[in-house]
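Everyone, describe these structure tokens:
***
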Amino acid sequence: MRVARAQLRPNLSHCIETVAREEYEHGLRRLLAGEGDEHLAERTELLRLFLETADFRQLRSQCELHLLDGKEVTFVVYMHEGALKYDLLVS
């Protein structure tokens, strides 16, 4: 069984909220067109929960300095024991 995860990569042009919303809308369009599978449905639901519950002001501030330093930022969003979680990876 695969666990739904979403990797979101904000940049100086698109904040984490914009990236999450674009990924959610893309997944939703694919599902409505009948192109998706169970994994896409789970990932899209994960993104919906993230969009509804995340403190985007805090998330933007967490990654903004890294982006300004020229580093790449990735948020990995997932469910763990029934709770929405995310990890911030900087490279």
The chain is about 50% helix and 20% strand. The longest strand covers residues 73-80. Residues 5-90 form one domain. The chain has a mean pLDDT of 93.
